[in-house]
Amino acid sequence: MTRRAKKLAALVEIAAVLSTHALLPVTIAQARLEAQQRKIAARAARRAALSPDGADPFFAGQMCRQAGHLREQQAAAMAELARLHASLDQAKSAAQPALARERVLARLADAAARKG
Q1: Fewer Cβ in 10 A, N or C end of the chain?
Q2: By percentage, how much of the chain surpasses pLDDT 70?
Q3: Are 13 and 102 spatial neighbours (Cβ–Cβ below 8 Å)?
Q4: For 51, phi and psi rounded to 5 degrees?
């Protein structure tokens, strides 16, 4: 292995560590997004389960009130989901240069290893 190839291999290792570090916010944002989607699905299921019984007007009113409250919670959760989508997009954009650097250095190292 030539000196140039060794230096490139070392740079590839460093770039790999940096890209892994750059991807950490993406992983965290993705996990938060998925957790929020699960919460929204659970609220929607609870709301769907609240069907007013026409026989008891008091009970039907309570169910409608609870469904309205869940609807408000779901609207807030959807707003949070939109914020999390934006956060994920920002994290991906921030990680992109590190990933591109790693790919370019890996290609250069492969080319140098084949030559040398």
Answers
A1: N
A2: 94
A3: no
A4: -105, 120
Question: SS3 of 56, please?
Answer: coil
Task: Measure the CA–CA gap between 18 and 16, rounded to whole angstroms.
Answer: 5
Look up residue 14 and give its amino acid.
I
Q: What pLDDT does residue 108 have?
A: 83
Type of residue numbered 6: K
Across the chain, mean pLDDT equals: 86
Q: Which residue is listed with tokens 């869940």?
A: 70
Contact 78, 39 (CB under 8 A): no
The structure tokens listed for 79 are 């707003």
Place of tokens 């921030």: 94
CA atoms within 13 A on the CB side of 83: 8
